[in-house]
């Protein structure tokens, strides 16, 4: 079985995987990082989004071996100790979640958006979220959260 090595949330990790092991399974089962969710396994829902070398990626669409040598950030790696990341804080403040299932993927996508577009319009946020499905909130508070989170990241 191939061995993969990568950095996850700042820590060097390696492990044996099957060639067909998905990155999301390596994270959840291999590393016990269960904050990354699986909502569909068919690239539809975005619950599994993580950052790979700073870019948001649906981790159910990537093989673990394809992440060899990369720097992966999951929702567990966003906060700084007890201090939430500004985007996490914005979701909390603006009630950007209900059941929370979609939230890790939403937040990781939002962080990528805000890094590349520090002042996104509501339309740009809604376009960006095309690949992230929420079954609870109706998206209004998610959009509000991302606007506030981007503003906080700018500040
Ligand atoms: Fe990856 Fe749904 S689990 S997109
Ligand atoms: Fe429940 Fe989004 S908060 S799916």
Write the layout of secondary structure elements.
Layout: E1 3-8, E2 11-16, H1 23-30, E3 49-52, E4 55-58, E5 71-73, H2 86-93, H3 103-116, H4 122-128, H5 140-154
Helix pairs in contact: 2-5, 3-5
The structure holds FE2/S2 (inorganic) cluster (FES) (2 copies).
Could you explain the architecture of this structure?
The protein is of the alpha+beta class and 155 residues long. The protein has two domains: 3-77, Beta-grasp domain (Ubiquitin-like (UB roll)); 86-154, Orthogonal Bundle (DNA polymerase, domain 1). It is built from five helices and five strands, in the order E-E-H-E-E-E-H-H-H-H. The chain has helices at 23-30, 86-93, 103-116, 122-128, 140-154, and strands at 3-8, 11-16, 49-52, 55-58, 71-73. A five-stranded mixed β-sheet has the order 2-1-5-3-4, with helices on one face. Strand 1 and strand 2 (11-16) form a beta hairpin. Helix 2 runs antiparallel to helix 5. It is globular, with a radius of gyration of 15 Å. One FE2/S2 (inorganic) cluster (FES) is lined by residues 97-102, 134-137.
